[in-house]
Each structure stands twice: as C-alpha cells, then as structure tokens.
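Bug report (template v2)

What were you trying to do?
Predict the complex of my protein with 6-O-phosphono-alpha-D-glucopyranose.

What happened?
Run completed; filing so the output is reviewed.

Input:
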Amino acid sequence: MRLLSVRLIVSLVVGVTIVSLCSSGYEALVGKRNLRRDLQRRAAVLAESLAGNVERDLEKGTLQTLRRTVQRFANRENLIGLAVYDPEGHIISETRELEPLMAQTPPVVLQTLKSNQETDVFERISDKPVHIAVVPLRHQDKFLGVLAIVHDASYIRAQILQIWWETFFNALLYVVLIAMITLLIVRWSIEGPIARTANWMRSLRTGRMPSSRIGVPDVELFRPLAREVATFAESLNTARTAAEREARLRVEGQSQWTAERLAADVRTRLGTGKLFVVSNREPYVHMQRGRSVQISVPPSGLITALEPVLRASHGTWVAHGGGTADRDFVDRNDHLQVPPDDPQYTLRRVWLTKEEEEGYYYGFANEGLWPLCHIAHTRPIFREMDWERYQKVNRKFADALLEEIKDTQRPVVLVQDYHFALLPRMIKQKRPDARVAIFWHIPWPNAETFGICPWQRELVDGLLGADLVGFHIQAHCNNFLETTDRTVESRINWEHFTVQRGEHTTTVHPFPISVELDESAPQNSPSESRTALLKSLDVDALFIGVGVERVDYTKGVLERFLAVERFLEKYPRYLGQFTFVQVAAPSRSHLKRYHDLEAEIEAEAGRINWRFQRDKWRPILSLNRQHSHEEIQPLYKAADVCMVTSLHDGMNLVAKEFVAARNDESGVLILSIFTGAAHELRDALQVNPYDIDQMADAIRVALEMDPEEKQARMQHMRRTIREYNIYRWAATLITELTELRLDQQPTPAGQPARTQNPAA
Ligand code: G6P
C-alpha cells in the first residue's frame, strides 16, 4: 500500500512538473516576443521623431548642431546611444556611450546603406545583448546616410528569467499541494477501507467472525468489489460451517443429513444423469420495483430442499415465470442460469396467459383441488373451463420439460404438487426411460370426498403415470390407494404400496417434509429476545404467543383468535399480560374467499381487541404482510407459545420451523391434530382446533409449564427434526426413485394383488 502511495505521488509530481514546464516555456516565449516587439516599437518611434532633425542638420552641414541633437535624445530608457553614418558608412556623429561599443560599423548599418530600407536586428556586441534599428536619412530624394539607434536588450533576458522562476515556483507549489491532497485521499478513501476490509477478512479467515451475519465493511469506493468479496466470504463461511458440522457429526458417529451430504449423495446416485424439477412457483423471481428490479427467493421449504440438489447435479428447474420482470432476464430458450450470483443450474421459465393462470392456478388448483383435499368446509368449485385450462397448462409444462430432457438419457424428474397431476403420465408416454416422481404437498382426502371431483379418474390416471407418488404421511398414501381402487382399473399391492395399471407400476410412499434445524448457540436469552421484540412491535406484555400463516381458511386463524378470547375470559389474570402476535401474509387474494377471509381476520382481531384492550396493551396484534424468513426468526425465538391450529394440513412447516428456531430449548408448541406434523411432534400440546375451550386451556398450560418440562419436550422435538430434516426428505425421495426397477413385471394372473390394507 505504501509503495502504491509513493508510486502514485511520484507519477503525479513528474506529470504535473512536465505540464507546468511546458506551459511556462510557452509563456516565456510569448513574453520574449512581446518585449522585443515593444522595444522595436520604441526604437521606431524614436527614429521617427529624431530623423527629421538629423536630416535638417545634415543638409545644413552644421555638425555641431547635429551632435547636440543626437546627444539630446541620448538619455531615453534602455537607450545605449545613437550614431549617424554618411552614405559611405563613415561615422559622422555618435553619442559618448556608444563609442566603446561601435568601434566598427555594424553589418546592419552596411545592409541599410545598401538597401536604403529601414532594418533592425537583435544581436550581441562585446557580449552585450543589444537592439539596433537603422533608418535611412534623406532630403528630397538625396541620400544623406543612416541613423542607428542602439538599445540595451539585456533587460528582456532578465524579465524572461523572472517569468521562468515565477512559473517554476508556482509549479512547485502545485506539486506539493497535489501530492498532499493525493496522500490524504489515498489515506481516507483507499487505505482506510482497504485496511478495514483486510481486518474483516482476517477475522473471517481466523473464524472470529460471528456466522449469523457476515457484514462487509462500508467501502463506498469499492462497492462492486465488496459485493463479490461478500459473496465469496459467505461461501467460505458456509463451507467452514459445513465442514465443522460434518466433523462434529463424524466424531459423534451420527448420520445427520446436511446440504453437503445431500449434494454429494445425489452426485453419486445420478452419475452422468441429470435431475429435472417441475413446480408452479419458481426459485428466483424478478420483480419490477419502481425503476429497479428486485430478485427474491420465495420463502419455501421446497426451495430450501431442492436447491442443493439442483446445484450439485447442475440440473434444470422448470417453473412458471410469474415475476413482473421475469421475461427480461431469460435467453431465447427462456433459460436463466441461477443462482444469479453464482450460476450452478438452469431455470426454465414457462409463460402463462392471464386466462391460463386464472383457470389452472386460481380456478382448478386453488378453488377446486385445494378445498377438495383439505377438509376445511369450504366447498370446492369445479368448472369445465378451469379443467380445460388445467389440462392445457399441464400439457404446456410437459412440452417444456420434454424439450429440456430431449438430449438426456434416463433423466430423473421430480414433479411438485397438486398443480401438475396430469404431468407424470404425459411425460412417461413420450419418455418411458425417464424416472418420474410426483410429490403431493397437500393432504389426500378419503375416497368419498375425492369422488366429488368430476375428473377424479383423469387425475388419478395422470398421477399413476409416475414411477413414484409421494405424500407426507402414510394416511394420505392409504387414501390415495383407496381412491385409486375405486376409480381406475388397477392392481394394488398393499404390502408394498404399489399400483399396477396396465404395464406400469407406481410406488406410493410417505416422505415427511421438514426443515433445517438451527444448531447455533443462542445469541440472546429468551427474556432479552422478548424485550427487544416487544419494543420493536410497540407492545406492552409479559407473555407472547405467535402464529405465522398465509391467510388461508385451512389454517384455523379465526378459531385461534376465539381461543385467545376464551383464554382471557377464563383466566382474566392474563389480561394486560398476554399478547398474541399473528403474521397473516395475504395469499391468493385474487380469489373472493381469500379476500373475504383477510377482512374477517382483521374484523375478528378488532372485535376481540376492542373488548379487552387497555392502555397500551392489546390481546391480538395482527401483522398483515409477507414476512421474510429473517423477520420471522425473532418472533419464533421470543415467543412463549406458538399456535398451529390448522383445520387440515398436509404437514405444516410452521410447527417445525418454530421448533427448529428454538436453539434455547424453550417455548411451547400448540399443534392441531389435523396436521401431518402432529404425527412426528408428539411433545407438542396437541389440540382439536374445533374445540375452542381445549385450545384456551392449552394456552394456559403452555404459559404455566415448568421450565424443565418445556425443555424436555423441546429437546425431544428438536431431536426428531435433527434426524428427519429437509435434506433427508430430498435424499430419501431421490434414493427411492433412482433405485426403483422401471421394468417391473405385472403381478402374475391369479395372485391376489391386494394383500393388506393398513387403512382399513
Ligand atoms: C402451501 C402448500 C403447498 C403449495 C403452496 C402453494 O404452502 O403446502 O403445497 O404448493 O401452498 O402456495 P402458492 O402461494 O404458490 O399458491
């Protein structure tokens, strides 16, 4: 750095000096020319005023008068003297000062005598710089001789030297000033930030940096560089954390699944093969925000789980390009390399028209299949037009996928969710060599309920195109097999949970989705977290309950509010002490049922608050906007109790996220028995969300539970999630799909296909 400063300053000094010398040279040249011109002009004026008198004296022949005339003009500024010559070049008269200098007739005089023209010259006589101006003398056409006027020109040189000195002095001053300013700029704007960055990198390298957030020092001048360094640092930190975790796990002899282990496992499993994922939501969304474009990752467990797999296999993710600026970021094949900062796999965006989105997503998927599969007493709506669009969009996605896999042999395809029930069959018809799994993220209802759907046969048939169909829990698998049994011609093997339809066999297994556990040491005590949170929310309470949801009628938010109301009625000692914070992120608001529900939740919170609130305290605080994962963490960490009261839910990741966040091993989870998570999180206080009194009592039990019991329950639930985390979910799904035999033969005729029905 010091060398850099010295080099910079030397370059500046040399540069500025050269420029100054050139400009002062030019100034001296111009000054010299002007001074000479001025002297020539003065000589000319003197010659003009003197010539008349000298001519008269010469004509009259009065040499005495001539001498006096000449001597009279002799004391002008810088004038050395005057001399008069006859036409032969002999001196007639000269001033005293000139005598020692002009022993011989100067050549310029002889030249004027010859040419009869005014002449002047700058020359040195006896080493003295002089200016000699010579004018012819005439009287009426008679040539009388010449007059020579000699000026001392040495003052010109002196003045030029002065100009040089001044310029040199100015340049010196500039150079010193510029060097000092440069030195200061380098110190403040470059050396300082670089030193801070170096310190920061050192603490990163030596592991003294808290891994929670790697903030780059504020280095304005190097912002682009800083961004790159930040990304680099984050990868370094992630790699270090992963390596430490792996090492710890090795020491502990455990086999916990991590993103890195999943990536390595998938790489080995796929070999040269490639992985393809299809989902409605895309992993990266480009949104126009005013004049800039914001890129975001939707907060979704599915994306967390599948990203490391896609990165490791450099696969392709096909999804609906739903962002307002999505089209501006794809190439002509609708491809985009992601993650944008560190491209590792391909995102293929599929475009939908408004009508297609309306019919396929809002209509058939969310007004039909969603309420059909979630038994939450909202009537499903099935419209012919929506069904047509659902088929059309499934075909569109199938075509996009077929295009993507056309050059890949035996591709592995993971289709996600109820938006694409028809896709597995469409893919397998064209590419029987592809291994296709579909994971159904929502419940599958019993056969009678599913029978409400006018197109149940087509949906089941579409799903049975897959080699593997996954649900969260065994009960959903059983419901699906029952529905299959009643809907399409097939052979069901209840021992292995397979369905054989025609020549094709589909395996139906549960894969409980999960989250990643926060294993870091708690940074704050629960009371510190709570105080900070209450302050940020401007709430005055002793206990906090929390609920985090998309606004959806399946989540039982209104029932939860009624439970809070009942709790305060039954246990009034908690008035002024307990506040329930509800994150209610608007979702699918375009649909009337969802839009109305947003208003109902708001109204119900308002009613209960109006009934109980006093001073700064309110029983319910409803936060009606999308919250990022980072914003929700402090809520989870500070809450005394988290309420998940879904009327029906495939898994419910909020329950698992709450447990995952509680690295302090405290907090109580109240969990609906109608969630998939209730099958694993046995240490939650399990409730029936339709039983308001039971939920109210559960709140009291949670708030009054012994710390030791809270800890024991939380430890147990955390152990479950540690073992069955999101990476294990992805790993088992992919392992099972890649290990299936695609050429399974039909069960021999006569052998009973249905061997066991665990649902019975
Ligand atoms: C819930 C379900 C997922 C579903 C998602 C769709 O999270 O559990 O199965 O894919 O909603 O949400 P979206 O906002 O895309 O309609």
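What did the reviewer find?
The longest helix spans residues 2-60. Residues 65 and 744 are 143 Å apart (CA to CA).
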